[in-house]
Amino acid sequence: MDLTVSSVSHRYGTVEVLRDISLDIPGGRILCIVGPSGCGKSTLLRMIGGLEMPSSGTVLHRGAPPEGCLNPLTFVFQDFALLPWRSVEGNISLALEDHPLSRAQKAELISDVLTRTKLSEFRAAWPRQLSGGMKQRVAIARALAVNPAVMLMDEPLSALDAQTRELLMDDLVTLWTRAPFTAVYVTHNLAEAVRLGHRIVVLSRRPGMIREIVEIDMPLEARCDGDPVLEAHKARLWKLMRDQAAAADMELQHG
Ligand SMILES: Nc1ncnc2c1ncn2[C@@H]1O[C@H](COP(=O)(O)OP(=O)(O)OP(=O)(O)O)[C@@H](O)[C@H]1O
């Protein structure tokens, strides 16, 4: 399934947040959205996911969702959004509850995503027993369990320390390489964007407008920290963002 964002603009009251955003989200690719604080990245993601309606413009879904898709669009949030009173398995099964699946089918889906996210040994653990990185793995497993057409990821690694972030980036690359999924991935971390993004959309400061769309051809599994091609992309992205980020920062500080 492909998504097309067409001339999306949005205001909250008198505040113009997004202006005339048009972009294609191709199936089986990871599209990253970067931009300075407050430029409307999360707002755009919520609109792509249908959680909010734009003031004008449309988000079109074209083509059928993948086979076995239970929810076309699922979110992965920065704060994991796990239910503390449910085990790892219980949190994942929550995503399957409203679907007409037999007990055996549910068990198979859960076992599959637990294996893919390296959580099999932790299926009975409680969220409070898990590190931040493990909690985010559970959230990713829960999102994958419904075999979504598009995974909408809002700063999924931002709450984690640098080493855990690296490990989870490796995990996401492995997951994608084994079974490519479509994702829209919001981040302000450019290292994540160049490591995970096939396409990177750079937004200006608020009102967020598209400044540039950067394509990175290198296969995800060939990308590694410090690679000169990726470093060059990162430097270019930072050049595009630096003045905007500084201006946005001043704006927030002065209200
Ligand atoms: N529900 C809302 N009502 C009013 N204003 C909102 C609402 N949601 C977001 N905003 C405002 O819209 C602007 C864009 O917010 P958004 O969270 O989309 O930006 P962002 O680029 O994701 O920011 P950050 O990088 O800091 O997370 C901000 O000024 C924010 O205060």
Automatic annotation (TrEMBL):
<keyword id="KW-0067">ATP-binding</keyword>
<protein>
    <submittedName>
        <fullName>NitT/TauT family transport system ATP-binding protein</fullName>
    </submittedName>
</protein>
<dbReference type="GO" id="GO:0005524">
    <property type="term" value="F:ATP binding"/>
</dbReference>
<dbReference type="InterPro" id="IPR027417">
    <property type="entry name" value="P-loop_NTPase"/>
</dbReference>
<dbReference type="InterPro" id="IPR003593">
    <property type="entry name" value="AAA+_ATPase"/>
</dbReference>
<dbReference type="Pfam" id="PF00005">
    <property type="entry name" value="ABC_tran"/>
</dbReference>
<dbReference type="GO" id="GO:0016887">
    <property type="term" value="F:ATP hydrolysis activity"/>
</dbReference>
<keyword id="KW-0813">Transport</keyword>
<dbReference type="InterPro" id="IPR017871">
    <property type="entry name" value="ABC_transporter-like_CS"/>
</dbReference>
<dbReference type="InterPro" id="IPR003439">
    <property type="entry name" value="ABC_transporter-like_ATP-bd"/>
</dbReference>
<comment type="similarity">
    <text>Belongs to the ABC transporter superfamily.</text>
</comment>
<dbReference type="InterPro" id="IPR050166">
    <property type="entry name" value="ABC_transporter_ATP-bind"/>
</dbReference>
<feature type="domain" description="ABC transporter">
    <location>
        <begin position="3"/>
        <end position="232"/>
    </location>
</feature>
<keyword id="KW-0547">Nucleotide-binding</keyword>
